[in-house]
Amino acid sequence: MTSQARINVQTRRVKVAIVGGGFGGLCMAIKLREAGIDDFLLLEKGDDVGGTWNHNSYPGAACDVQSHMYSFSFEGNPDWSHRYSGQQEIHSYINGVTEKHGIRQFTRFNAEVTGAHFDDKAALWTLDLADGSQVICQHWVLASGPLHVPSFPNFKGIDKFQGKIIHSAQWDHGYDMAGKKVVSIGTGASAIQYVPHVAKEAEHLTVVQRTPPWIIPRDERAYSGLSKWMFRRFPALRKLHRLRLYLSNEARVVPIFKPRLAKLAEPALKAFIRYQVKDKETARKLIPSYTLGCKRILISNNYYPTFNRDNVSLVTEGVKEIRENSIVFSDGTEQQADCLVLGTGFIVDPRIYMKDFEITGLPGHRLQDDWKDAAEAYLGTTVSGYPNMFQLVGPNTGLGHNSIIFMIESQVRYVIDAISKLDQRGDAWLDVKQDVQNRYNDKLQEELKGTVWQNGGCMSWYQQADGRNTALWPHATFQFMARTWRVNMKDYDWQPAVVPATAKASLGR
Ligand code: NAP
Predict the structure, then answer these.
(1) Minimal-distance CA residue to ligand 1 atom 46
(2) What is the rounded distance in angstroms from the CA atom of residue 422 to the CA atom of residue 401?
(3) Which Pfam families does the entry mention (predicted)?
(4) Is this structure's pTM higher than 0.85?
(5) Superfamily assignment of 3-149+348-503 in CATH?
(6) Which end of the chain is more exposed for a tag (fewer CB within 10 A), N or C?
């Protein structure tokens, strides 16, 4: 069935569809409007904009990138209350930007995309939505982010558990933890933020740690009224402050390539743990054995002191089994539990990375199959065989040292340039050449070999089971900006007109 034949009253046709209303989707929408393209629709699965910052509302949720960096370069906010902002403040910033740029009128909420299919005869994409409607578009931008499908480990017996189960990304604020025995599994970026808060509520909290994270002190400060006034009155000062933060973050790219440099900081951090945690045995268990930076470096001032509380204990045994009202650990000990909190992160299986729905491109291309072994794109943005499909925060664009919003803005500029060039040429679609994509990824993997992520002696969500890192960008962010500044015409096949699939041979496939 062609796209045309499928059109019904529930079908909307636009030039560009954006999937996901977080920082990426919002930036895309704003820049499309600036480029004079108003014929677009933003599809958001949730009931509000914000993406991560809408869904992840667990107690203590905050960003570990400084607020003046973790915001759009073109929408500076002089009023950030603290150096690092909490979820609610970031969410209200996103809402403010959405209103200011009039993006809500282009947004359909509660619109979950369940499939995306390219019709090469019509040169159009069809996006299927959960409510049965469809959106037909020339281009679409996947901006749902790599970390949005919560991971629920399949612990033996978990289906028998009679208590409450809460995942960090689906917090139930109506559940009262007072007087409850809580077991929390995982010690990643999310867990170390909610653990100190849960500890204050619960009768007892057991923290189950598989691998300890490296945690550095959080340089937390409130901006004074005078600072905010200065930032408002003299925007150049705010921009200078942002530049200083950018450069200091950017300097952290150096130890990524020089793991020996990263190791130099470890003795001080070990001393910090021993200083903060009174019980020597607990402190010992909290000290990582892999190189600093191999997993994401976390920041916190209140995580370690939580283990000095009488109602908190640390378990480093694996989970053997979950029973009706308890958790059994690999050493045979059993812990009673009313509530199980899962800080176990997100599914990063390449088959569902960036999407948990089917995407089919040119004949023979199904993304779940093409990404069976590894998620690969060109500049993290385009994938060969999927014309006019763009991704934001796609493979190897994540960062361990600076703000992802910098990367998003670079990608959005690139997408706008691609659409503009296509329009100027009057072509139907552009599709990155397979050999260009292959060469790019081979080189990237080669460059990643020398990094702390590959040589630091750990496993993390950055890596696939075979150790291949398809999550992170292994260079300075300005190098990514330079690479994505303009679309290099030679990197792409440009389809001049809609032709039958059989004529694709002329494109050299
Ligand atoms: P995560 O970093 O993937 O951490 C998951 C934790 O769960 C790890 O400690 C992991 O242990 C543990 N775990 C997973 N499966 C387990 C199992 N079967 N048994 C025992 N332990 C298990 O997930 P996250 O904390 O949600 O963070 C994900 C990413 O989101 C971060 O890296 C960051 O990019 C982002 N984030 C950022 C912030 C911030 O800006 N402050 C806050 C939250 C999240 P192992 O380490 O042994 O695998």
Answers:
(1) 211
(2) 34
(3) Pyr_redox_3
(4) yes
(5) FAD/NAD(P)-binding domain (3.50.50.60)
(6) N
